[in-house]
Amino acid sequence: MERFLLPERKKDSHKGTYGHLFVIGGSPGLTGAVCLTCMAALRTGCGMVTAGVPESTNDIFEIKLTEVMSKPLPETGRKTISPLAVEKCLDFIEKNADGVVIGPGISTDTGPQLFFNQIIPHIRKPLVIDADGLKLLSKNLDIISDKTERIIITPHPGEMSVLTGLSISEIQSKREKTAAEFAEKYGVIVVLKGYRTIVSDGDSIYTNLTGNPGMATAGSGDVLSGIIGSLMVQSFSLWESATMGTYLHGLAGDIAARKYGEYSLIAGDIIEFLPEATKFIQKNNSYK
Q: Alpha-carbon dihedral of residues 217, 280, 98, 189, nearest 10 degrees?
């Protein structure tokens, strides 16, 4: 059993005490992914979240997200993030952010691909790569081959197949081995999602026991990346962020399923019950 205590908050703390997460993503038709990631991050306790999004979609995010700040970024003619946004993002990360989530709803167009290839090698803060970001990464795995040990990736089996070239059935038949080998080779932490989500850093393996089939719904993974990113900027280690974040995500989903049932559960319900799941960890001083 993993044991970890969520510390009590100091009376003289302020929003800066609990970290600032920068979420980069979004494109036409995929704005919801960024919103779910940002709201999950706030509900998991980080002090501030900024969404870096294509400038023409910025108004959408300002309307949908009350507590989240937004940063409009240069975009392509297809209204996706442009490589011209690299310098602006790196400057913001260096001066303001404690960690980054990249990928939710970013799309796999040429513009975001060039942006991704150019920015990833220069991000020196803790980083979660998720969703479309994993598809962009699969085109150029060399950009994470320097074993910086600052990156968490969160693939589902289909995304892991794209990253490794293995079939989904092969991945599912050896989930621990697949996650551990990729983590060791590239110096990252792998969160291989699915039934009994596996977390590996190449040496250790954590098998998560929370979660239910109702969580197999659009946006659930975006919620997970927000949870992990939030813990990461609150000064938890990458390993703690990945393992406790996975447990917390599944537990919130289990609590939501008790209210709504597995058939009716949606990603926003997981966010709704993050406070109750967090209180459970605080009360029991542990997660399994």
A: -60
CATH code, 69:
3.40.1190.20
Q: Is residue 37 part of a domain?
A: yes
What is the distance, to the nearest Å, from the Cα of residue 91 to the centroid of all Cα atoms in its chain?
21
In tens digits, the chain (288 residues) has pLDDT values of: 444 468 788 889 998 889 999 999 999 999 999 999 999 999 999 999 999 999 999 999 999 999 999 999 999 999 999 999 999 999 999 999 999 999 999 999 999 999 999 999 999 999 999 999 999 999 999 999 776 679 999 999 999 999 999 999 999 999 999 999 999 999 999 999 999 999 999 999 999 999 999 999 999 999 999 999 999 999 999 999 999 999 999 999 999 999 999 999 999 999 999 999 999 988 886 666
Give the count of domains, the chain: 1
Residues in CB range of 195: below 8 A, 6 or more apart = 211
Tell me if 10 is assigned to some domain.
Answer: no
Q: Does residue 194 fall inside a structural domain?
A: yes
Please indicate, yes or no, if residue 13 is contained in any of the structural domains.
Answer: no
Domain that holds residue 234: 18-284
